[in-house]
């Protein structure tokens, strides 16, 4: 525990490390790092007045609609737009023939067409777009476009994609990683095998995709949308629109959560093209159905595992085959596969590993970035294997895990040394020792505690309680040589500071963190964060905790440069070094007390500013045997799930999730807990309910009625029993990513608890009711 932290004891009785003493005593610091500073937009979001992309408006705007394919795989014979174009109120209709620049795009591989040209490769792929005076007119015109299809047999089974006819000129295999570590021929005394399937989770954003494009006088366009990586969006849009990057400006509007649907081009290309063609502002707001069809989802994954161990339960070798269904286009599948293969054995020491991973194209809905991509799927599988191994050895599942946990200095199966703090044993101990929740009562007034809710549960006597454990890990920032860099500018004008950084506030709390950093470094309480657009230097995407590390690091460096500008004249006046001056509680003081003044007095009449960059140490791609230092840093978590299962009906209620997490350093206690709770809830959804149903490539019932999300009544009691603050010395502030690792570990923990309650194997997520049934009425 660091010197500026103390140990608090919550109601559960367990110590929570890393919380400043002021917070533990209820007297939290007002601002700066360690304070639970409220987000600046919290009140507006609570009151429903926060402006999202769907709220955009411009004088004289037109409305857009997109025609999407009803088939998962078809050859386009002809497209007739004449009837749509002739409708009153329709201004223009565009297809692939009207794309003036590059006709394909993609963040990693440029394999996705702006509009389908000759072939449709997934259900819901854009065919054409319309701009009209009224939204109803636009939708009617889109429906009036006549498309003649030659329906083709879809490739929907990823296992058959290897031998099937290529659905794309680049082939069906996007990437294959054959990881070989140690002795391939090694065997253990005890062997367990398993086959696991992970379903297609949708990001299910609060608001569907929307945006507004406004033409510019230089022939370019301004695009207002909920982007999480505006500079990449700008560059991709410019290439397709036949413009120079400086002719396209992307302005970020309110982002209602950032997952896969915000990290690919959803509405930008259609809007930009329509605005350029009509010379008018054009707005598009996707329906929920269009949102389900158009954006990326979590990779459905098939995993085959074989674990070898000795008689004492120590792992000898892990063998795995991992198959990711990427859908029609590459997107982030190569990155997700790298994480899945590298973390295939989990946070455990394994001397030998043989892992083969593939990402393949199919005619299923597209897959892309979703918290913990790759890591979440393998976590469910390797933790299922650990439970099987414990059962075969007759050993306590926690004890088996404890004998194999990773620590700092150990090696990943990629050959990379774990140099960051890896307190995995400490995390597992914390959740094991946490007090268990009380058992449910059988009285009628407590029926809501049973699986299924009020009037939905069976007999209390059919309910079994299960307790399960899971460990997991994620990598932070980009991997395999990704150039992670961010730029920030900090300006101070009297008592007010301003931060300019193109790191998008997606709900992860970066805007609040930026304020806290400047408050901490400069002692200025009032700090404003400038809205993001592409006139600012790039900061990269908002994924894998990178803005806390890279963008937060840039803000800190810029603030320290301003601090030097402020302190040097004062130090020189008193004949001392600026390093001998400190800023705390809004005051500047010298080591000997000779100088003591307020920050406000020192800044009076001054305007100071500085710009800085942060770039972490480089990484390298995995080689032909899956070896290489591919990751900048790692974060870990342990979760104990407590569930009640009605073994007659198969209904499952998650009673409690106890979480111990490796956070590096708590920068905002309230936000850390909020992000953990949100991550756990998303993971519980993946474990129990969230699965986008697809039949032969066609999405069935693409709406929130048929896609059940966890509600407030379904969300479990999340108890953060321990936050381990062991700072990563190479990370700014020593902080680690918080949001992703609970999503990764939660589904595995729930599955383990259901196994414990039912004795069933539970090898599929989400868990189907029949998998939890062990008794008949």
From TrEMBL:
Domain Aldehyde oxidase/xanthine dehydrogenase a/b hammerhead: residue ranges: 47-153
The protein, known as: Molybdopterin-dependent oxidoreductase
Region (Disordered): 1-23
PANTHER family membership: XANTHINE DEHYDROGENASE, XANTHINE DEHYDROGENASE SUBUNIT D-RELATED
Database matches in InterPro entries: Ald_Oxase/Xan_DH_a/b, Ald_Oxase/Xan_DH_a/b_sf, Ald_Oxase/xanthine_DH-like, AldOxase/xan_DH_MoCoBD1, AldOxase/xan_DH_MoCoBD2, AldOxase/xan_DH_Mopterin-bd_sf
């Amino acid at each position: 525990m660091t010197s500026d932290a103390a140990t608090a004891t919550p109601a559960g009785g367990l110590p929570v490390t890393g919380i400043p003493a002021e917070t533990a005593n209820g007297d939290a610091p007002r601002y700066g790092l360690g304070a639970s500073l409220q987000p600046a937009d919290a009140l507006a979001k609570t009151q429903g007045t926060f402006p999202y992309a769907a709220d955009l408006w411009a004088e004289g705007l037109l409305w857009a609609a997109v025609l999407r394919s009803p088939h998962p795989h078809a050859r386009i014979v002809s497209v007739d737009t004449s009837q749509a174009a002739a409708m009153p109120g329709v201004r223009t209709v565009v297809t692939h023939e009207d794309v003036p620049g590059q006709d394909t795009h993609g963040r990693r591989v440029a394999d996705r067409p702006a509009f389908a040209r000759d072939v449709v490769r997934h259900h819901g792929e854009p065919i054409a777009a319309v701009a009209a005076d009224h939204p109803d007119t636009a939708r009617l015109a889109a429906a009036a476009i006549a498309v003649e299809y030659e329906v083709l047999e879809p490739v929907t089974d990823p296992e058959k994609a290897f031998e099937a006819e290529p659905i794309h000129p680049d082939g069906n295999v996007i990437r294959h990683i054959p990881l070989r570590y140690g002795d391939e021929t090694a065997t253990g005394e005890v062997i367990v095998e398993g086959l696991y399937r992970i379903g297609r989770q949708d990001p299910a954003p609060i608001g569907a995709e929307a945006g507004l494009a406004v033409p510019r006088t230089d022939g370019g366009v301004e695009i207002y949308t909920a982007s999480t990586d505006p500079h990449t969006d700008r560059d991709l849009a410019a290439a397709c629109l036949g413009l120079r990057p400086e002719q396209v400006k992307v302005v970020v509007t309110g982002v209602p959560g950032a997952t896969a649907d915000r990290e690919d081009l959803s509405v930008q290309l259609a809007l930009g093209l329509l605005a350029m063609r009509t010379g008018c502002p054009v707005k598009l707001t996707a329906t929920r159905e269009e949102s389900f069809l158009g954006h990326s989802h979590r990779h459905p994954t098939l995993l085959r595992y074989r674990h070898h161990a000795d008689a004492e339960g120590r792992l000898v070798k892990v063998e795995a085959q991992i198959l990711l269904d990427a859908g029609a286009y590459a997107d982030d599948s190569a990155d997700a596969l790298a994480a899945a293969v590298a973390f295939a054995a989990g946070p455990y020491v394994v001397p030998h590993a043989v892992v083969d991973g593939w990402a393949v194209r199919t005619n299923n809905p597209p897959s892309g970035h979703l918290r913990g991509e790759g890591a979440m799927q393998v976590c469910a599988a390797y933790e299922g294997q650990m439970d099987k191994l414990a059962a075969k050895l007759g050993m306590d599942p926690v004890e088996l895990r404890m004998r194999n946990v990773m620590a700092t200095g150990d090696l990943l199966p990629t050959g990379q040394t774990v140099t960051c703090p890896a307190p995995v044993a400490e995390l597992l101990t914390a959740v094991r020792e946490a007090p268990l929740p009380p058992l449910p009562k059988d009285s009628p007034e407590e029926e809501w505690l049973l699986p299924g809710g009020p009037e939905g549960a069976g007999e209390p006597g059919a309910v079994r309680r299960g307790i399960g454990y899971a460990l997991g890990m994620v990598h932070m920032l980009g991997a395999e040589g990704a150039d992670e860099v961010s730029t920030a500018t900090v300006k101070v004008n009297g008592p007010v500071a301003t931060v300019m950084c193109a790191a998008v506030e997606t709900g992860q709390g970066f805007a609040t963190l930026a304020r806290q950093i400047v408050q901490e470094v400069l002692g200025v309480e009032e700090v404003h964060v400038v809205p993001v657009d592409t006139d600012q230097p790039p900061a990269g995407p908002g994924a894998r905790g990178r803005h806390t590390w890279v963008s937060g690091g840039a803000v800190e460096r810029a603030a320290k440069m301003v601090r030097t500008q402020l302190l040097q004249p004062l130090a020189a006046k008193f004949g001392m070094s600026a390093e001998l001056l400190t800023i705390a509680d809004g005051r500047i003081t010298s080591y000997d007390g000779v100088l003591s003044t307020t920050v406000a007095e020192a800044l009076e009449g001054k305007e100071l500013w500085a710009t800085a960059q942060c770039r972490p140490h480089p990484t390298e791609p995995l080689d032909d045997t899956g070896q290489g230092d591919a990751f900048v840093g790692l974060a870990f978590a342990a979760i104990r799930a407590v569930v009640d299962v009605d073994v007659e009906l198969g209904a499952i209620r998650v009673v409690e999730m106890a979480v111990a997490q490796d956070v590096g350093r708590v920068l905002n206690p309230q936000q850390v807990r909020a992000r953990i709770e949100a991550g756990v809830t998303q993971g519980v959804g993946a474990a129990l309910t969230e699965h986008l149903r697809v039949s032969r490539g066609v999405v069935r019932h693409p709406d929130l009625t048929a896609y059940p999300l966890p509600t407030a009544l379904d969300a479990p009691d999340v108890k953060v029993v321990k936050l381990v603050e062991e700072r990563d010395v190479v990370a700014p502030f020593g902080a680690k990513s918080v949001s992703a690792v609970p999503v990764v570990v939660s589904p595995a923990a729930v599955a383990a608890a259901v196994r414990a309650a039912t004795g069933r194997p539970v090898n599929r997520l989400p868990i189907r009711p029949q998998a939890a049934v062990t008794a008949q009425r």
